[in-house]
Amino acid sequence: MATTEATEAEYRAQFEEIRQGTDRWPPLHDLMGIEMVRVTPTTILSMVLSDQVRGQVPGTVHGGILATFADVASAIALWNSYDMNTEAPVTTDLHARYYRQPKAGPLTADASVIHKGRHLLGTECVVTDAEERVLARTTATYMVVPFEG
Fold first, then answer.
1. Which pTM does this prediction carry?
2. Minimal CA–CA distance to 108: which of 54, 37, 23?
3. In Å, what is the CA distance from 53 to each residue of 29, 33, 85, 138?
4. Which CATH architecture has domain 8-146?
5. Which residues pair with 105 in a beta bridge?
6. Fewer beta carbons below 10 Å: N end or C end of the chain?
């Protein structure tokens, strides 16, 4: 795994390139309204509260959406941990603990890298609402795999 430290501007450009110009940005992420706030020193993303992310009970957010939000933030936090031109992180384990539903949006995911091994990478992420109340916490493990081709 080759790694290089990039500047915040380079990360933003990479985010927009992936988001706009490749098939590596799933349509679900646009549906969720994910935006980059910053990438370093920790990765912070924001997400709008909309009908597209609501749970079965009015006023709630679907738990899978919260886990996906944390997974996206965590994967972006790993960007300087592998060669983005030839490799990709694949989630091998994600543990989510849900604490409460949001009172107001937007939601924020703050992810950090806690382990950089040769083959496995680990993250932690905290998802909060606009009042900075913790909604969920996740830990995740990723394996870096080469692109096929």
1. 0.86
2. 37
3. 11, 9, 31, 18
4. Roll (3.10)
5. none
6. C
Q: How far apart are CA 85 and CA 59, in angstroms?
A: 41
Q: Tokens 């990709």 — which residue? A: 88
Output DSSP code: residue 96.
Answer: E
d(CA 9, CA 103): 32
Q: At 95, which helix (H) or strand (E)? A: strand 87-98
Give the Cα separation of 83 and 123 in Å (integer): 18
Helix (H, G, I), strand (E, B), or coil: what is residue 81? helix
Place of tokens 């936090």: 77
Residue 85: count of CB within 10 angstroms of its CB: 7
Q: How far apart are CA 55 and CA 122, in angstroms?
A: 28
The mean pLDDT value of the chain amounts to 87
Q: What is the b/e burial string over 11-21, where b = at least 16 CB atoms within 10 angstroms of the residue's CB?
A: beebbeebeee
pLDDT tens readout for residues 62-98: 899 999 999 999 999 998 888 888 998 999 999 999 9
Residue spans per domain, the chain? 8-146
